[in-house]
Amino acid sequence: MSRPPRVVVIGHGMVAARFLDDLTRHAERTGAAFDITVLGEEPYEPYNRLMLSEVVAGRADLASLTLPAAPEDVTVHAGTAAVRLERERRVVIDAEGREHPYDLAVFATGAEAVMPPIPGLGAGGGQGVRAVRTIDECRELLAVCTPGRRMAVLGGGLLGVEIACGLRTRDVDVTLVHRGGHVMDRQLDAPSGQMAAAVLGDLGVDVRVTSGIVRVLREKEHLVGIELADGERLDIDGLVVNTGVKPRAEIARAAGVPVDIGILVDERLRALDDDSVAAIGDCAQTDAGCPGLIAPGWEQAGRLARELCENDQAATAPRSAPIPQPTPQATPEPRPEPEVSIVKLKAVGLDVVALGEPLPDPFAAHAQGLRVLTLSDVGDRRSATIAVDGERIVAGVVVGSPRVAADLMSAYERRTPLPLDPAHLLVKGASNPDAVPQAAGPTALPSTATVCRCNGVSKKEIVDAHVEGARCVEDVAAATRATTGCGSCTATVCGILEWMDEVNPAQEATMA
Ligand SMILES: Cc1cc2nc3c(=O)[nH]c(=O)nc-3n(C[C@H](O)[C@H](O)[C@H](O)COP(=O)(O)OP(=O)(O)OC[C@H]3O[C@@H](n4cnc5c(N)ncnc54)[C@H](O)[C@@H]3O)c2cc1C
């Protein structure tokens, strides 16, 4: 009898954990069998990295982030990094020199924080400087976050803003230094960015939009301050760097696997020149690039697992023949871009939702046949802007108005035809901030509406889970995985459960 294919997974983060879970589920269903080894550099069970900013904000604790352990028949080497891939021999070599032979090597090595080339910052940042990408980094940050401590956050993107708000909840003196036009400039237009900065100011965050830091100041190696491009010196005790991430592709690159920014993969998530190497999650570069978000990573994990169990036994089957030589690549079929993009900030005290591509300049948009409508109320620190193409919202940004945001998200996602005057959408929700938004309420949501974007779970799946007996968020998470990513859908899931309890009381009685 031939042995099962050997799958070696490099990295044990959120996407690897999902891959192992999905592979086990599909294998049980299809009868496929694999011999699976996982090498995880971090000495922990996989954990929900998205929630680290919530830990900084005191809204979650580190212990609650742990994800389910790998299935029992998987061999996990925690705290063991892979250091080399030898493709000719098809082995992965770990930091202790052990060899792990594979039929399929799956890179799930994620991404790492980039330290900008600023004098005084070393490759790892140096004393007093950290990113917030791992449990260890988060712990180190929390250990020095005492009230009155002076911290600067470098980089006013989504994560930088989340961390800055989180630090304020701990009474840390926070300066947010952002190089560029305005905070969150990848998601927000300039007026929305200014509104967000005003809210940050109200929260006590000192926002500096500058042309950057020119120097990190140290005394005997110790961080004492930063010098801004305009010459101002800020005295600080700590610096948190959030200036972007880069895929961890060093091992693949050293093995000659084609790498651009990330590990280049085709539509089957295989390396372009080697069917026995795959990449998923933040380390992989598809036609859609390297989005650095959990939803595409989890989708890839599920796709690869399903394919291995259903169609691809041959591709991972043990082979005695050496690795195939690189062959000229057929142009991969272009895959459609994700059609709906919704970004929700998870920051204490600041509500921001961005829909679609960044908003265009209103006059440029007008020339392209789009209408851009804005409602802005600086006094109340709220604004909403939408770009409308004919009858549909194609982009939008809402600051400080979660109910308007809920309505607009719903209209954007459902592609509902808009009122003759789309301004009503902005005024309706804003004029009655306490009203439950009709469009976004659980009854009005169409059954196909996506509730959990991280996991791609629809309202119908949550309703079905309720019918099957799910009565609380944990039950729904177990049945559908909704709420297990960034957690921003938890309130909607609760709303659907409450609504189902009301409309389906007979079922309660039957279950009792
Ligand atoms: C604070 C924070 C908040 C975030 N918020 C959101 C959000 O709201 N929404 C969203 O979509 N995304 C968010 N993200 C991004 C999201 O966390 C990532 O998209 C996701 O973690 C990617 O999963 P991954 O498994 O590909 O990589 P990772 O989670 O980075 O895991 C990769 C693992 O591989 C290990 N590894 C690397 N090299 C090796 C090696 N050579 N040998 C062994 N192991 C190795 C690493 O140590 C790591 O444990 C956030 C990220 C952070 C840091």
From TrEMBL:
<comment type="similarity">
    <text>Belongs to the nitrite and sulfite reductase 4Fe-4S domain family.</text>
</comment>
<dbReference type="Pfam" id="PF04324">
    <property type="entry name" value="Fer2_BFD"/>
</dbReference>
<keyword id="KW-0408">Iron</keyword>
<dbReference type="InterPro" id="IPR041854">
    <property type="entry name" value="BFD-like_2Fe2S-bd_dom_sf"/>
</dbReference>
<dbReference type="Pfam" id="PF07992">
    <property type="entry name" value="Pyr_redox_2"/>
</dbReference>
<dbReference type="InterPro" id="IPR052034">
    <property type="entry name" value="NasD-like"/>
</dbReference>
<comment type="pathway">
    <text>Nitrogen metabolism; nitrate reduction (assimilation).</text>
</comment>
<keyword id="KW-0349">Heme</keyword>
<keyword id="KW-0560">Oxidoreductase</keyword>
<feature type="domain" description="BFD-like [2Fe-2S]-binding">
    <location>
        <begin position="451"/>
        <end position="498"/>
    </location>
</feature>
<dbReference type="InterPro" id="IPR007419">
    <property type="entry name" value="BFD-like_2Fe2S-bd_dom"/>
</dbReference>
<protein>
    <submittedName>
        <fullName>FAD-dependent oxidoreductase</fullName>
    </submittedName>
</protein>
<keyword id="KW-0411">Iron-sulfur</keyword>
<keyword id="KW-0479">Metal-binding</keyword>
<dbReference type="InterPro" id="IPR036188">
    <property type="entry name" value="FAD/NAD-bd_sf"/>
</dbReference>
<feature type="compositionally biased region" description="Pro residues">
    <location>
        <begin position="321"/>
        <end position="333"/>
    </location>
</feature>
<feature type="region of interest" description="Disordered">
    <location>
        <begin position="312"/>
        <end position="338"/>
    </location>
</feature>
<dbReference type="InterPro" id="IPR023753">
    <property type="entry name" value="FAD/NAD-binding_dom"/>
</dbReference>
<feature type="domain" description="FAD/NAD(P)-binding">
    <location>
        <begin position="6"/>
        <end position="288"/>
    </location>
</feature>
